[in-house]
Amino acid sequence: MSKVENREKGIVMKKAACVLAIVCAVMIVSAGAFAAEAKFAVVDLQKVLELSDAGIKAQKEMASKIDSAGTDVEKEGEALLRMKEELENEAALLSAEAYADKVRAYENEYLEFQRKYEDYEYELYLMESELINTVMDDVVELIGEMGQKEGYSVVLESRVSGVLYVDDSIDITDEVIEALNKK
After folding, report:
1. pTM of the model as a whole
2. Strand residues in the chain grouped as ranges (E)
3. How far apart are CA 140 and CA 156, in angstroms?
4. Would you write out the chain's pLDDT as a tens digit for each of its 183 residues?
5. What three-state secondary structure class fits 94?
């Protein structure tokens, strides 16, 4: 490379460095301006579900439905255990064919019980999801209203958004619970 080429390359590099410095300065200034205008808040939605009147009501409703449906499943499970005990006690007294018939009957009852239990668990899951979603729809709507009213740029969920530290001054969980309870 000749001295002229090196010199031209140096000038181009200096110009590029100047442009890069200007771009960086603009980004820093604009980021500072955004940070000065931005207002952040966090909400612990789990705490809202656990402590708000609507969340407590949903939990009680869920517990009531679990108790009533669980009693039926529990009774069927106990009947199945009695059937198994009878089968074990009668094993020596029955012929091979009669014993095989009772084993098949027990296995069919057991499979039916498993199916009912899985259906019961799935119904509970759907019921819980529906109750939580109903409460969460109200909470999200309320947070949106509060965010607009208070001028928040961003409201984050404190447990799942990857927030590792939050100053208590931007945690609006208690205010959300209070507003939800008034609704």
Report:
1. 0.60
2. 40-43, 154-157
3. 11
4. 555 454 554 454 444 433 343 443 444 444 454 455 788 888 998 999 999 999 999 989 888 888 777 777 888 889 899 989 988 888 888 888 988 998 999 999 999 999 988 988 898 888 888 988 999 999 999 999 999 999 998 888 888 767 778 788 889 999 999 999 998
5. coil
Task: Sort residue 151 into left (φ over 0), alpha (ψ -120 to 50) or beta.
Answer: left
Neighbours of 172 (CB within 10 A): 21
Contacts of 40 (CB under 8 A, 6+ apart): 152, 153, 154, 155, 156, 170
Is residue 42 a contact partner of residue 163, using CB atoms and an 8 Å limit? Answer: yes
